[in-house]
Specification:
Blueprint lengths: L4 H6 L4 H21 L2 H4 L5 E3 L2 E2 L2 E5 L5 H4 L12 E3 L17 E3 L4 E3 L8 H5 L7 H28 L1 H20 L4 H28 L6 H25 L3 H9 L1 H8 L7 H6 L3 H14 L3 H5 L3 H12 L16 H25 L10 H25 L2 H18 L8 H29 L5 H23 L8 H16 L15 H21 L1
Antiparallel strand pairs: 1-6, 2-3, 4-5
């Protein structure tokens, strides 16, 4: 029996697969809360210099008297970072003017708490000279996601998908809760860093473990369902943030559910594919029979023999070299190098442009931040559902290439649009973000199918790492706007277009069984080259 045939035969879309999808769906729903949490926990409210009344530090000057102590702009809004050195009583007169110098906010700041009761900005005064620390805190989280994508991808190929999934859930719960009780910014950043590693580890291992228990004909649908959970999580975050206006309570509400997810995930069995590849056929047999029993196919499960699994394991063994768990294995042969380089660029460009659009909420002007989050979350749902249909009908390669190429075109199309044409700009932004969201959904599916089981998690980890590098690079590129106004948009559009063109060099995986070994990938590449040579000789 050829490798993987027994597994393909026994895996069908039954009750177990439905339960598995539901159990993975819920944590993924909350992962989005952590990815975009600082949109609310680090929201910057209106602020001005705190002016105590006399020697009473607990009472501040407010109302019309504030303009005696703090400069006002043309819209009669108080200056955020300066105050008068001495009170300007003459400003109470109808045509009074200021003649005194200003100084920094020596007594701290006062904040408008009409929208948020507290954020990390109001608690640790991350404004004016300290405002860069807000972006630093988000960068620390993204650095954690980057490290988690690299480390946990490789570890999962060594230790198993299930072990890393459980560890990641526990890590997010513990570290996310720790961040809610952080006494200072340094501790908060440390907790967020490790929380980021956990979210990356869970995303990688939950999707891979689920796909390895799902029949091939359902991969695209299941991948879209799981991707939609990340999108719907943005809607959940908007609802949570609207209901909970204190940053510590919001952080806790987003983290505590992961303890429940950790407890019930012990029920999820390890991937039978991984167990066979890693020479553990006895446990693979137990898991396959357990799944068959849950699906109401006990007799079929009992028909699976240990000898058959050992035969499959023996057939795979010859192709497993000593470097099978190393990231270097992704570049060891020409076919794997081509696949890895194209996928790295695709993941980088997708995240690079997506986070430029998703985190730039200011482009919507004065619209409520909660409404903006709803719009951004809701628009992704139809796009992610559409990509499932396209991937099954047009193929993974064409769908991936089209999403990247068209998304880049929409960004380039926004360059000549004047800023006062807000409706057109919003339409282009929504279309671009939706396409990059679809591209992300397709990337997980396509990458899972392109890499063999022995190095699949390592490949997902490396490509996911490139996506996180794209997220880190996006704000840096945005800074070049100070030198050339159109340069950021030009790069955000050109990079995914280039990636979309190069994706066409990858092999199509629609209807192709998952490869388990490096040898299978090599064989498929040789057959493809042989077909091309035959066509050349005919013409």
């Amino acid at each position: 029996m050829a490798p993987g045939v027994q597994l393909e035969k026994e895996q069908c879309m039954g009750f177990f697969q439905i339960i598995l999808i539901a159990l993975v769906f819920l944590p993924l729903l909350m992962v989005a809360s952590h990815n975009f949490l600082q949109n609310f926990t680090a929201a910057v409210p209106r602020h001005w210099c705190y002016i105590p009344v006399g020697d009473n530090d607990t009472t501040e000057v407010t109302g019309d008297l504030l303009k005696i102590y703090v400069p006002m702009d043309d819209n009669q809004e108080p200056d955020r970072c300066l105050r008068f050195s001495t009170p300007q009583w003459q400003l109470l007169a109808p045509n009074g003017t200021s003649t005194n110098t200003t100084e920094p906010c020596l007594d701290g700041w006062a904040y408008d708490r009409s929208v948020f009761n507290s954020t990390i900005i109001t608690e640790w005064h991350l404004v004016c000279g300290q405002r860069a620390l807000k972006d630093f805190a988000q960068s620390i989280y993204m650095a954690g996601v980057l490290v988690g994508a690299l480390v946990y991808g490789g570890l999962a190929d060594r230790l198993g998908r299930r072990a890393l999934l459980l560890w990641s859930l526990l890590l997010v719960g513990v570290m996310g809760t720790g961040a809610a009780f952080a006494p200072n910014l340094a501790a908060y950043c440390a907790f967020r860093f490790f929380s980021g590693t956990g979210t990356a580890g869970f995303i990688l291992n939950s999707i891979s473990l689920t796909m390895e228990w799902i029949p091939s004909q359902s991969w695209a649908t299941v991948a879209t369902i799981l991707a939609c959970s990340l999108t719907l999580g943005q809607l959940v975050l908007a609802g949570l943030a609207y209901s909970i206006r204190d940053w510590r309570q919001l952080q806790l509400a987003s983290s505590a559910p992961f303890f429940l997810f950790f407890l019930y995930s012990w029920w999820i069995p390890e991937s039978a594919r991984w167990l066979i590849v890693n020479h553990r056929p006895e446990m693979a047999l137990r898991n396959l029979r357990r799944v068959a029993w849950i699906n109401g196919e006990k007799l079929e499960g009992e028909g699976i023999s240990l000898e058959t699994l050992r035969l499959e394991m023996q057939q795979k063994k010859e192709s497993l070299g000593p470097s099978r768990h190393s990231a270097l294995g992704l570049f060891r042969t020409a076919p794997m190098r081509g696949v890895t380089c194209c996928l790295m660029l695709a993941w980088f460009s997708n995240s690079f442009s997506y986070y430029h659009l998703a985190l730039d909420l200011q482009r919507f002007g004065d619209i409520s931040i909660f409404l903006v989050q709803l719009i951004f979350g809701a628009v992704d749902v139809p796009f992610r559902m559409l990509v499932a249909v396209a991937a099954n009908r047009l193929g993974r390669r064409l769908t991936q290439a089209a999403c990247l190429f068209l998304g880049g075109l929409f960004i380039l199309a926004s360059i000549p649009v004047p800023q006062d044409m807000e409706v057109l700009l919003i339409a282009l932004t929504v279309l671009g973000k939706g396409l990059f969201s679809s591209s992300s959904s397709c990337s997980y599916l396509y990458t899972t199918e392109l890499y063999p089981t022995v190095i699949r998690q390592t490949g997902l980890g490396v490509t996911n790492m490139m996506a996180r590098l794209g997220a880190v690079a996006a704000p840096m590129v945005q800074m070049t706007q100070a030198f050339v106004s159109f340069l950021p948009l030009l790069l955000f559009g050109a990079v995914p277009i280039t990636a979309g063109i190069l994706v066409n060099c990858l092999p199509e995986t629609l209807g192709v069984p998952l490869a388990d070994t490096m040898m299978q990938v090599e064989d498929r590449a040789r057959k493809k080259r042989s077909k091309k040579e035959e066509l050349k000789t005919k013409f």
